[in-house]
Amino acid sequence: MPPPSESLPACATATMAGDVCEVIVAGTWQITERRPAWASVLGAGKPKRVVLRGGNLERWDSALLLFLLEVQQWSREAGAGCDIDALPEKIRALLTQMMASHESSVPFDRTESFLTTVGVATADTLQKTREILHFVGECVIAAIRLARSPRKFRWTDCVHEMQQCGAMALPIVSLVSLLVGVSLAYTGALVLRQYGGDIYIADLIGLAMVREMGAVMTGVVLAGRTGAAFAATLGNMKANEEIDALETLGIPAVQFLVLPRILALGVMMPFLVLYANALGILGGLLVGYGLLSIPPTAFWAEMLTIVDLSDVASGVIRAIAFGLIIGLAGCLRGLQAERSAVGVGRAATSAVVTAILLMIVADAILAVLFNALGI
């Protein structure tokens, strides 16, 4: 037995049990010393699954990671499964990063059963749901603190964000809303002209824009414009360790950075939707006058026979919900971003996808709710 001051050399022991090969790594793994090769450890065995375990690891560096990477690459090429759950958590994290940087065209391991895949996907979904709910809870607590002590809120930042997500978004919202109204009018005219109901194009445009299309299209535009900007800004601050500095000084990032953005978007979204509704109706009016020879006064009078304040209110409620969802998604993905330029880009993309997905879900829920309430 070696004395306590002497380090054990790097060793890897492979034990075959049927089609499963259990590999135990132990000793001192240093890049300057000799390390076992996977081919010599495996020998002539051809397992269908390799299980990696950590033994008495005294010291290790990238030499151990290179050996484990060699095992994983062999498993992928041979079509065998590779289980690293028994390794220490730090080794698993570093090995995952190394595998991501050594991706190849070799097919991924597909030996996992269907139930295992479903279980892993379900666990991942539940974890992401808990993160979203936790973030929403933090925002609610910050909003309660704002209501109790509004003097501590940074109103200057909120007004600045209102300008960025409100006034600065008018050009793109104007263009999209006007063209959506024109497209809806042309599509409706194809059907209504066959039955001599040209005048009902006003009802179609009015209801579609006020209840659905105005809020949905404005939400999609702001998700790609403002939501991605929120995620990129907060992700860049996290990469530069600015958020860590705020937390060190005892300043909550949610109250200092997130709440002004969410509040600004929640306030400005209804005004943008009302503006989008007006331009969408204007686009339909122009098509009705130019294509169907409907006078603007007749178009307006017919539209008022079916559009009332309840329709406008439903669109405004959707707008508020969509604004809060976009702000939450953008800030959440920004705070979850990795500390790199690639992580910031992924956070911006994820913010747009998350916001649009949640908006569609919220729109469906609100549609069912409004129908039940008779709105």
List keywords for this structure.
single chain, 375 residues, alpha/beta, Transcription Regulator spoIIAA, 4 strands, 69% helix, elongated, disordered N terminus
Major beta-sheet overview? 4 strands, mixed
Report the strand count: 4
Low-confidence stretches: 1-5, 105-109
Principal-axes geometry comes out as: elongated
SSE topology string = EEHEHEHHHHHHHHHH
- The rounded distance between the terminal residues' Cα atoms is 83 Å
Tally of separate domains: 2
Q: What is the arithmetic mean of pLDDT?
A: 85
Strand content: 5-15%
Work out the radius of gyration.
29 Å
Strand order of the largest sheet: 1-2-3-4
Q: What level of helicity do the residues show? A: 55-70%
- What structural class results from the helix and strand content? alpha/beta
By DSSP (H or I, 4+ residues per run), the number of helices equals 12
